[in-house]
Fold this sequence. Notes:
The chain is an alpha/beta fold. Helix content is about 30%, strand content about 15%.
Amino acid sequence: MPNPSLPRQTGKRQSPEERIKNFNEVAQGLDKEHALEEASRCLNCKNPRCQAACPVNVQIPSFIQLLLKDDVKGAVSKIMETSLLPAVCGRVCPQEKYCEGACVLKERFGSVAVGLLERYTADTARKEGLLTPPVPAADTGFKIACVGSGPSSLACAAELRRRGNDVTVYEALHDFGGVLRYGIPSFRLPRNIITEEVKTVKAMGVHFEQDALIGAVLSVEDLLKDYDAVYIGSGAGLPTMAGVPGENAVGVYSANEFLTRINLLKAYDFPKADTPVKLGKHVIVLGGGNSAMDAARCAQRLGPESVTVVYRRSQAEMPARGEEVENAMEEGVKFSFLTIQKEIMTDDKGHVTGLKCLKAELGEPDAKGRRRPVPVEGSDFIIPADSIIVAIGQKPNPIIPKTTPGLKMTERGTLELKEDGQSSIEGVFGGGDITRGGATVLLAMKDGLLAAGKISEYLSGKKPKGGK
Length: 468
């Protein structure tokens, strides 16, 4: 019988004192005993709200019940019916926003720790050799190209391959995973986990091409000559800057650049690695999302005297996961809430010396329902800084739109899609951050899965270009 009143499991973590000295994974997950105990809290609801809230429709009660029977192989197979990235999702999905947020136990006993159970299932299955990639359907003869190797393209490629198509993923960088690899620090998502999840997709027969920047090495038009359809899932890698005087100063980084240097180029291991990062004694991070938390926590591990997050609203309005804000605070990151950046101060050589700010008050809600920050006149003050990391959002890289005549983009610079999932160019589909402008891993995966279905509908009744 379910026992929802048992204490919710949280798993072990590195202590703040230890983890601040390394880039090893902070959260250690659950062992078997505690995973089964947590699984026993699930009520196995007939109409599972958790599953309905999951963007990729993971059959949550079903996999948990299989886990309770010690059928790890069955449990991971059940997850992989809709998600081929269970070890990734178990770590970085904001479960509190989706499945756990919808759990019927949330208010009285605390939600079932679905994320930790998914992580345990995936990690255990891989460790014990129980993870078997889905077997693709019979060959359709169709060839499809997926641009980018982030969660959106991986989900789309895997689903299209599952349906029997020949799929090739094109990645601009030297390794696969997209934003999972360059955007998320290893203390949240270890590199080997990304590599292993990509291996699963490869094992299904999906082809991967690295160092292939579409728009430079090949154009979308080139791809359409050889492929029956193209999926653009190239993400949002163009940073949004602060738009204040001084942002071109020496010592100003975009979060994209900073995190790529850390996560992909291992700047934290300089001089063993080739790419250094010079921060100085005092670091400021602008923003309140997950990228801002990632940047702040990475910066803190590089040994400055202070790292301060500057955010124009209160803590309650921060879009970052509560867990990540808590982790940052535990690690010694400072926060300056209700603070609006006004100007980046510099010395006579153009180096950052500080950030001129204004205090703010919360006014009426904006179009998204969040209260607007209203500057308090005469409240100017300066926060000393040697470097500033701007983490206030990102937009799609313009290289594909600029090299693809006839490809329509929205006013926000995102890819415009029709109801059938196609762009303004026949046979070209898209999803993930290039259409959303920045979102969660799960929403990107959802887009990829939906696009795979739309592409299949589009190809239905057509003849493959290869003549099969």
